[in-house]
Amino acid sequence: MTASGLRTRVPYGKLLVVEDDAAVFRCLERIVSRYRPVKHASSFAQAVAELKGRTRFCGFIFDQSLTDRSDGGTELLSMVLREHATVPVALITGSIEPAIVNRVASLGAVILSKPVDERALAPFLQRVIAREHGFAKDFTERLDAVTRDFRFSPREHEICAWFIAGGTREGFLAFSGMADATFKTHVKHILAKTSSSSLAEAVSLALRRVVVRGSRSEPPSALVLPTTPRSAGKGGAED
Predict the structure, then answer these.
(1) Could you report the per-residue pLDDT of 206-218, keeping only the tens digit for each?
(2) Per residue in 97-125, is it b (16+ CB within 10 Å) or e — as a string?
(3) How do strand 110-113 and strand 57-63 relate by DSSP bridges?
């Protein structure tokens, strides 16, 4: 946090994408770079060099089969779990094999089948966002389920998570670098999907549903957020 209370931009660094197919990388970069800055490695050897460097990473996407290592993705997965145990990892593959699926699942990573689009990447991107806010695993899973119910885009999920974590509109704009007009369009979508009249109401509704999912008792009649989103407005698309 800065002296003004705003979060510094990209506190956990870049997202490393290891992919040797230029076309596939460009597709992944178009999606991921909208949310986090991207670092690219096109081979197993280059990826190892990046991991041994001083770059800080907020997430990893590994292609399973690389030109210089047929099982490079799972090897890199094992490597990062030793050095970056809490950083989310996604492994992409053109062939879903049970042995690979089981291994990836046992290591706590996400496995995706090519071609990969934004919808398929959304759960992984949301794990990256949750880690940056320090949410507990069970809370993260319940929040993901709630925002999926609302059909939030990854960016809409990020805005919701930001305010649940106690952030402000000014802080989010400073952190994300998003234009104010773009932010308002995202908010407009959130309000429409939650049938809310304000962002504060939408975030309160989402948080209440998260709490209800984790409770066996009757939900409270109302839930007041510790921090109400300021100056969000009722206006509020995809950037």
Answers:
(1) 999 998 877 654 4
(2) eeebeebbeeeebbbbeeebebebbbbbb
(3) unpaired
CA–CA–CA angle 77, 80, 82 (5° rounding): 115
What domains does the chain contain, in order, with CATH numbers?
14-128 (3.40.50.2300), 135-213 (1.10.10)
Element housing 159 (H / E): helix 154-164
Residue 63 three-state SS: strand
User: In sequence order, what are the residues at sequence separation of 6 or more whose Cβ sits closer than 8 angstroms to the Cβ of residue 34?
Assistant: 155, 239
pTM (whole model) above 0.85? no
pLDDT tens for each residue of 118-152: 888 988 988 888 887 878 878 888 998 899 999 99
What is the rounded distance in angstroms from the CA atom of residue 40 to the CA atom of residue 61?
A: 10
Cα distance between residue 191 and residue 152, in whole Å:
11
The single-letter code of the amino acid at 44 is F
Residues whose CB falls within 8 Å of the CB of residue 27, separated by 6 or more in sequence, listed in order: 115, 116
**Residue 164: closest CA among 126, 125, 222, 203:** 203
